[in-house]
Each structure stands twice: as C-alpha cells, then as structure tokens.
Amino acid sequence: MDGRSEETTAEQAAEDFAAEVARWREVRGMSKRALAQAMGFDPSYVSHMESGRHKPSEEFARLADKALNAGKAIWRRWCDYEQARIWNRRPSAAQPAPRRPEQPYATGSALMVEHDAARLQYDGRSYRLTMRRLLRNTGTEPVTRYLIRISVDRYPGDPERSNAHYRAHPLTWDELDLTATCRGEPMRWQAKHDRDAFKELWLLFDNEDGRFRLYPRECVWIEYAYTVGDDKWGNWFQRAVRLPTEQLEVQLAFPAALDPVVWGTETSMTAEASPLRTPPVRSDNGELRRFTWITTSPALHARYRLEWRFRARPERDMKNEEFR
Which among 69, 17, 67 has a CA at the least distance from the CA of 41? Predict the structure, then answer.
C-alpha cells in the first residue's frame, strides 16, 4: 500500500484521503463549494468528505483528482483506502473499534486570531518561514493544542512530475528544523499527517517542564518557524484564513541583488481569484529588499497568494509552497 503498513485501518486511510483532498484543494486555491461544483456534487459534499462524515468513493476520487489536477495523488490515496478496507474485512484481521471523527479543538473552545504575522526570508538557497500568532480563547474550555500545516508543490503546472519528485526527494522533519514557542516556553509538537509533500501537526501547549493551557478569555502569542530548501519551495506563498482573524500581515525578504518583484491575488468562498486590493509595500534595507502586505478583518476561508520572480537570475524550474 505505497509503503504503508498492513495494520493501517480503513478509518486511518479515509482520514489520509481527506487530508490529501484538502491539501490539493488549498494548493489550487479552491473553496469546498467551488470544488464540489466543479465535480458536479452537492455543495456540502466536499465538506462532509473532509470532515469524515462521508467515506471515500471511487467516483469522488477520480473526479477530485481531475478537478484539482493532482497527478493521481488523490487517486492513490483512494487505492490505499480501498486496500485497507478490504484488508480489515478479512476474517483473520482484527476488527478495530470505530473511531469518532477527531475534533480540531476541545468542545466548548473557540479560537480567534487577533494578529497573524508571517515573515518569509530567502538567502539564495533556502527559505525560513517565521509565523507569529496572537491567539484568544473566546470559548468556555481550555485549549491544549494548535493545528498547523506545511504543504509543498515543486512543479505546480505538472503535478505528476511534482509527485514523482517528492516520492524521490520527500520533505523531511529533519530538514524543516521546526521550532515553536509560547510565553517563552518551547512547545512540543505531535505529527498528525506525515506525507512526502505534506505535513500536518499539533503544536502542544506543554513541554517536559509543564503545561501552559490557553484558558477562556486568555490570549497568548505563539511563534513557530521552519526551513525549506529552494529545491522544494518556490515562487508563491499562500495564506488561508481558517479562524476568525482581525489582522493578517505578510512580509517577504529577499536578497536585493536578485532584483525581486512581487504581486498577489485573493480568493474567497464566493469569488474567483482577483488582484490584491492593496499592493505589497516595498522597502530596501541594505542587502535585503522587503515586501510587506497587511489586511484587516479578512473574510473567513479567504486565501491570499503572493508570487514573485527574481529578475536578476535566469528562471529555473518553478515551484510553490503553501502553509497554515
């Protein structure tokens, strides 16, 4: 099963399928509603699929892979699911207990983001992304973890080539060099999905020395950072608004010698991609050229994509990266 253990349950394979659909949908900048319409499904169907309320089907896998131009990546996840489902039904196989759909956060919690700031710096060989978020718990229960995603696409115009590239050169935890802190304390993290070009993980509000839960009405800054080489990153950077957010900020920092130029687009649940309403602001500081873009009260589920090219360097194979 594509290197997977025979012990993989059908429930886990279904979750992996849903994560693959979500990854490609977000890489392509499509809302759940837009994907469902492109496939000829009811507008709520994709949402039910990604949340685990519907099980993967062959028809859905084929249509989603085509609509998202995923280069058979979604189809392979369906094959994994079908193989796991058949294996789990064998008389000799242990029957796993049904799992309830996993909730992102505790019942009664309600996270919002007061400030979201991303800084992406390129040194000519690799990108270092630093994310800072001011989180507030507006619910009634403490929050113990925070979900983030890291997703890359080496050749966005040629998904089969991109998928083959990551099978041969997978993104690894070691190269990411992930760090995370909260209130000056290091945060532990726990992998949820570990794929060749896609990582999903929980940042935990605890470490070996203690726990620092985010209680109701409290707010706290968290910061995390990771590195990706430019053989796996690329020329665009996308932000998706997953939680109610008051301010979203992105800063790109490139070597001035590369003569970078930056532009961007935004997509919502109801509108196709359009140019950013305000341009990124350029500022030069010695050897660095910075581009800063800020928006307030962005719509939930909106996506903002910044793209760039280096005029002083011949064009190489184009790549892209997306994070959450």
Answer: 67
